[in-house]
Amino acid sequence: MVSLHLSFLLSLFSLACSLPHSPAAFKRAADGCGASSPWTFDSTGHANITLGDRSFVVHIPENYQENDAHAVVLSFHGYGENPQNQELISGLSENGLLLNKKGIIAVYPLGVVGIGRDDGDAPGPAWQGAPYAQSDVDDVAFTKDVVAEVSGNLCVDSGRIYASGKSNGGGFTNILACDSTASSLFAAFALVSAALYAGAYPLSGCTPGDTVPLINFHGLADTIIPFDGQLADKENDAAYVLPNITVYRQDWALRDGCATTVSLSLTHPFTNTTLKEWGCSSTDARAVVRGYTVDGLGHSWPSTLGLDGGVTTFNATTAAILPFFDAHVLP
Length: 331
What we know:
The protein is built from six helices and 14 strands. The protein has helices at residues 2-18, 83-90, 139-153, 168-178, 245-255, 316-326; strands at 46-51, 54-59, 70-76, 98-99, 102-103, 105-109, 112-113, 125-126, 156-166, 188-192, 214-219, 264-266, 273-279, 288-294. The strands form three sheets. A ten-stranded mixed beta sheet has the order 1-2-6-3-9-10-11-14-13-12, sandwiched between helices. Strands 4-5 form a two-stranded antiparallel ribbon.
């Protein structure tokens, strides 16, 4: 009788182990769970954290729970900007935003002041991969340190850490997606008006550790980073060569094991917007590249509020980026 009972229990255990687990419900708690954070947050949920000679801003949601793992979104500012501007235009710290039904921990790193562009502008904070960034700054290592620091001091779902960025920050987000080790830290990537100079590996030099879910937004009226690309800047500097965005998206599709033909094409998911998606694997849901092309939009983060200089009929963060992130979790 005992042996029969034991055999029955073992059968139940084997059956339970074979059942599929829902990615939406699965959480991997980080070291910072179960204890009060040593960081001091102000009344708006913000903390400015120093990490060596670098810094980043963290925002925790109103419903942050130290015993419940939360998703994290890193968002990288454009050239000459700062964490506060990136927080404003992305809206990632707004109340009520959820990933996996929990409030989001938003992280805004600060770039190092670069060497300046060849148009005479004063140098501003920049990210690795741009010709105006300092060549000896390792922003990939800094980002890994930021992820480790946040995970060690807050309750983080390590399977739901995401990277996003605009312009130079978008180009750097592509570097993270292309890095064989950094790419494995993030469940998905979002690039807005990305400055994809050669140093950001838009077409070559990109060696991700696995398939990469990537979503990209670009305006057809962008004169800073033209949708059709450019051979050089106005000073004829070849360091400023940029790829055609459609070619860039197709290249990512090939890298994810897809064909260059789109599997989904929607003419108007939003007004004046075309969506094309490359999703090519019946067994790997992470093999997907999604591109939004916005007619009439300049060098801006799509928003109905126009906080970044351009008004659209949709908010990229809430209408597209967060749903895309929510669908992807690290295996």
